[in-house]
């Protein structure tokens, strides 16, 4: 089955409640997301899920030169950064989009859906 | 058989069978590229063979069989897939269609795939015209006034997304169907409107595009006879297209509904459209749910086409329908059209007051300035009408409309 990355982007600047409007909202979002994760597991479509530490904790490494160059900070300075993601294994995009809708409601953020390469698309790459 | 009648037959068969052949192959091989190319090869083979061999008794079956053979040959030849995968495809090719949705028609699956909400609107329209309508890429590029190369890339990119993102080739579940269907209908109506009042280029009408949209509408109605909005859209397109011959004068000028020669309207299309509208009215009266946008627009068109002359138009009926339409879709464009109807019912100054309220949101929309100019003229504010016509002319990209507006502007006595 095709795999999809469902990623959530959130404000780079974190408020005291981790980007949520209030402590209650944060607690509720965590609970809803937890319940959503449980459902994915029950349905057997969950490959991996986790949240990320804020973008300020990121370090970027460029190993293409003679020696790796290490830089403090994320690869891109943007207003929104990847805050967490799911990897799911489902039959098609419609199912992934349905899950993304529920994921978005649970975590209170917009969710980007992107397919991973599959055997088909990899052989397409070799062909072209 | 004469060569011209053979050509007509080929054109007719192409119209009738293209979508079916592509759709059948898309299901069998699960690959839009393979389906499209094999269908194109089969039609090319028909053009080559039928003049000498004669037209087969079942042209559609011949084309599907030929296309299937070509597709299998091609998959073998290019060994696009490893042996195991290929074997699976062959097996799949012989298996009966999967039962996934409320309707089993392959063409319908193809329609929903082409109009998937994960694709950009322009891509949906282009794919629908290519895979359902059988238009060539240069034809589609010409229709939307973009470079052929850009259109080819747009189509290629959309097909690549369908494949890579695994957009399913199926009719959505009944719960999703009306939501998805509205996107499909929007695509068909977009194609129709582009044909009915081309937004640019030299031709006022793009008859091929209107015809194509009506053909798609008929196909949808055939496969989804219970969907009110499908019937509504088809009726709307038929009733609009019925007025085509009266719509542009011999000198290439747009003729307004009021000034049109009603004897030139196509009575057969009007009768067909009216029958659909009556069918929908009966269904709604029997508790079939509230009519949507296309049914209401079709009902308005039915009022116009019912009137023996512009004077006899039942404007109160038109306004009642617009009131319902505003409730469904309160967009400024709908409110503008309602205001125009109100002007006919309650007088130009009442209509003008409603039009003026939309000035901020519709300032860059040519039809707003057309409506405003006409109403200003009728209340005797000629100088303002002159300026408004000027604005409308500057914003219109359609040559027949520009000719019409220029004449109207010239008729004004400067006040």
UniProtKB/TrEMBL annotation, chain A:
Superkingdom per UniProt: Bacteria
Stretches assigned to the YCII-related domain: 27-115
Show the Gene3D superfamilies listed in the entry.
Dimeric alpha+beta barrel
Against InterPro entries, the record matches this protein to: Dimeric_a/b-barrel, YCII
One Pfam annotation reads: YCII
Q: Which family does it belong to?
A: Belongs to the YciI family.
- Stated name of the protein: YciI family protein
Q: Which organism is it from?
A: Ornithinimicrobium faecis
Automatic annotation (TrEMBL), chain B:
User: Per the record's keyword annotation, is Protein biosynthesis included, yes or no?
Assistant: no
Please give the Gene3D superfamilies that the UniProt record associates with this protein.
Answer: 1.10.1740.10, Tetratricopeptide repeat domain, Winged helix-like DNA-binding domain superfamily/Winged helix DNA-binding domain
Locate the DUF6596 domain: which residues? 180-279
Keywords tagged on the record = Sigma factor, Transcription, Transcription regulation
Q: InterPro entries from the entry? A: DUF6596 (IPR046531), RNA_pol_sigma70_r2 (IPR007627), RNA_pol_sigma70_r4_t2 (IPR013249), RNA_pol_sigma_r2 (IPR013325), RNA_pol_sigma_r3/r4-like (IPR013324), TPR-like_helical_dom_sf (IPR011990), WH-like_DNA-bd_sf (IPR036388)
**Which ranges carry the RNA polymerase sigma-70 region domain?**
20-81
Q: Which family does it belong to?
A: Belongs to the sigma-70 factor family. ECF subfamily.
> What name has this protein been given in UniProt?
RNA polymerase sigma factor
Which organism does this sequence originate in? Answer: Ornithinimicrobium faecis
Identify the taxonomic lineage of the organism of origin.
Bacteria, Bacillati, Actinomycetota, Actinomycetes, Micrococcales
């Amino acid at each position: 089955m095709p795999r999809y990355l469902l990623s959530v982007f959130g404000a780079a600047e974190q408020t005291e409640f981790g980007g949520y409007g209030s402590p209650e909202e944060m607690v509720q979002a965590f609970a809803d997301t937890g319940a959503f994760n449980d459902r994915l597991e029950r349905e057997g479509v969950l490959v991996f899920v986790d949240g990320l530490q804020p973008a300020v904790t990121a370090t970027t490494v460029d190993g293409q030169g003679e020696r790796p160059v290490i830089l403090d900070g994320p690869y891109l300075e943007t207003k929104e950064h990847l805050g967490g993601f799911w990897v799911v294994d489902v039959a098609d995009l419609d199912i992934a989009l349905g899950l993304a809708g529920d994921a978005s409601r649970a975590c209170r953020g917009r969710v980007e859906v992107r397919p991973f390469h599959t055997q088909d698309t990899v052989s397409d790459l070799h062909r072209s | 058989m004469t060569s011209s009648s053979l050509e007509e037959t080929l054109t007719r068969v192409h119209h009738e069978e293209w979508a079916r052949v592509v759709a059948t192959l898309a299901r069998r091989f699960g690959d839009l590229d393979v389906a499209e190319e094999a269908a194109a090869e089969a039609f090319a083979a028909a053009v080559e063979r039928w003049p000498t061999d004669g037209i087969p008794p079942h042209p559609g079956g011949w084309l599907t069989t030929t296309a299937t053979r070509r597709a299998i040959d091609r998959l073998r030849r290019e060994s696009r897939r490893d042996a195991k995968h290929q074997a699976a495809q062959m097996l799949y090719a012989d298996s009966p269609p999967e039962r996934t949705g409320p309707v089993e028609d392959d063409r319908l699956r193809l329609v929903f795939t082409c109009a998937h909400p994960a694709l950009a609107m322009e891509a949906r329209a282009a794919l629908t015209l290519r895979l359902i309508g059988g238009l060539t890429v240069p034809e589609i590029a010409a229709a939307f006034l973009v470079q052929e190369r850009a259109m080819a890339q747009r189509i290629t990119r959309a097909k690549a997304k369908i494949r890579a993102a695994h957009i399913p080739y199926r009719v959505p579940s009944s719960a999703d169907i009306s939501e998805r269907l509205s996107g499909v209908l929007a695509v068909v109506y977009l194609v129709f409107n582009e044909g009915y009042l081309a937004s640019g280029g030299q031709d006022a009408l793009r008859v091929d595009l209107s015809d194509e949209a009506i053909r798609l509408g008929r196909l949808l109605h055939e496969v989804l006879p219970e969907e009110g909005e499908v019937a509504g859209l088809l009726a709307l397109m038929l009733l609009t297209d019925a007025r085509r011959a009266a719509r542009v004068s011999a000198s290439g000028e747009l003729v307004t509904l009021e000034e049109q020669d009603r004897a030139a309207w196509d009575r057969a299309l009007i009768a067909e459209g009216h029958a659909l509208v009556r069918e929908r009215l009966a269904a709604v009266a029997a508790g079939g749910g509230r009519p949507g946008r296309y049914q209401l627009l079709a009902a308005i068109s039915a009022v116009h086409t019912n009137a023996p002359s512009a004077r006899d138009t039942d404007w109160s009926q038109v306004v009642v329908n617009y009131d319902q339409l505003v409730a469904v879709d309160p967009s400024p464009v709908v409110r503008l059209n309602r205001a125009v109807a109100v002007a006919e019912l309650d007088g130009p100054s009442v209509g003008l007051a409603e039009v003026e309220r939309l000035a901020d949101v519709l300032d860059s929309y040519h039809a707003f300035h057309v409506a405003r100019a006409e109403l200003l003229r009728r209340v005797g504010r000629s100088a303002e009408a002159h300026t408004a016509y000027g604005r409308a002319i500057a914003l219109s990209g359609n040559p027949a409309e520009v000719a019409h507006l220029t004449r109207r502007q010239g008729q004004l006595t400067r006040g």
